[in-house]
Amino acid sequence: MTAIDQSEHHAALENARREFRDQLIDADLLVPSGIAGLYGRGAVFEDIIDGIDRVVQRAGSAAHGSGIRRLRFPPVFPRDSFEKTDYIASFPNLTGAISTFEGDNKKHRALLGDRDAGLGWDHHLTPAGTMLVSAACHPSYSGLTGTLAQDGTTMDIYGYCFRHEPAIDPARMQAFRMHEFVRVGTPEQAQQHRDSWVPRGLQVLEDLGLSAAPVAANDPFFGRVGKMLAANQLEESLKTELVVRLYDDLDEGTAVVSCNCHRDHFGVTFDIKTEDGEPAHSACVGFGMERIALAMLRTHGLDVARWPARVVAVLEG
């Protein structure tokens, strides 16, 4: 493909993304905020999300029964826990930190003076010791420090995540929800969890009327070292994404589910050990709730009343 062909292809893809975004906004499914990739959600969109979550929870219950720990965290967690995830080393460009005002009246007047003068006032704020959650599972690991039970632990975690990726594509939101099933235990337990959820995740998507394919993938690690990490992740087959084509052949598809092996990364950094004293391994499957909803709207149309009866029945459960 020549440079001109590449440019035209990129323009066509961006136009398709923009058109889809505008259709969603016109249908009151998404509500624009004025910042790229940050949206409110309309009632119908939330109803779709609720239906998807029922399907995902049924799959989790069928796989793990009553032996799963259900956890829900706020979208903000302590900075010391964030540091232990080492996310800042791999994805500094996606990270969000919380700052707040801790000054007195005099400092507040200085802040307002800068604001009234049209100057930046962020320097008047100080770090609050909290970070925005980038992956739904991140807040869970600090509570596992110590020695696990023989069978390890399996967690059902659902919550909002933040990643600083402003984009035209509605499937690349800055704030979105992930429903994850996380396994922490021996290397074998973690690997089995990841592997078993690939076909199970495909079945969930098929039940929702989506055509998806598993693809070996890597995370968008930052910098020169990140290129090596990404290559290793691919070589060791640590990440499998379930991909749906939202824009036909204009791109390689959008990942709506991610199945990941972390090896002993979180076990080492959070000092989580198995019964034999070894660092625990972990794995997770994450369902991107907004992306699945968008894939359904793209596949079945924006008018939910005209969706296939079979799909509606699955959502209503």
Task: Find the count of extended strands (DSSP E, 2+ residues).
Answer: 14
- Distance from first to last alpha carbon: 47 Å
Indicate the percent of residues in helices: 40-55%
Q: Gyration radius, to the nearest Å?
A: 21 Å
User: How large is the count of helical segments?
Assistant: 10
Can you tell me the overall shape? globular
Low-confidence runs: none
Strand order of the largest sheet: 3-8-9-14-12-11-10
User: What is the structural class?
Assistant: alpha+beta
How much β-strand is present in the residues?
Answer: 15-25%
**Biggest sheet, open or closed, and with what strands and sense?**
7 strands, mixed
Would you write up a description of this structure?
With 317 residues, this protein is of the alpha+beta class. The protein contains ten helices and 14 strands. It has helices at residues 3-26, 43-64, 79-85, 87-90, 105-116, 187-207, 223-235, 265-269, 289-300, 309-316, and strands spanning 30-32, 39-41, 69-71, 76-78, 97-100, 126-132, 146-147, 153-162, 175-185, 213-216, 239-244, 254-263, 272-273, 281-288. The strands form four sheets. Strands 3-8-9-14-12-11-10 form a seven-stranded mixed β-sheet. The protein has a three-stranded antiparallel β-sheet with strand order 4-6-5. The model has no long low-confidence stretch (mean pLDDT 95).
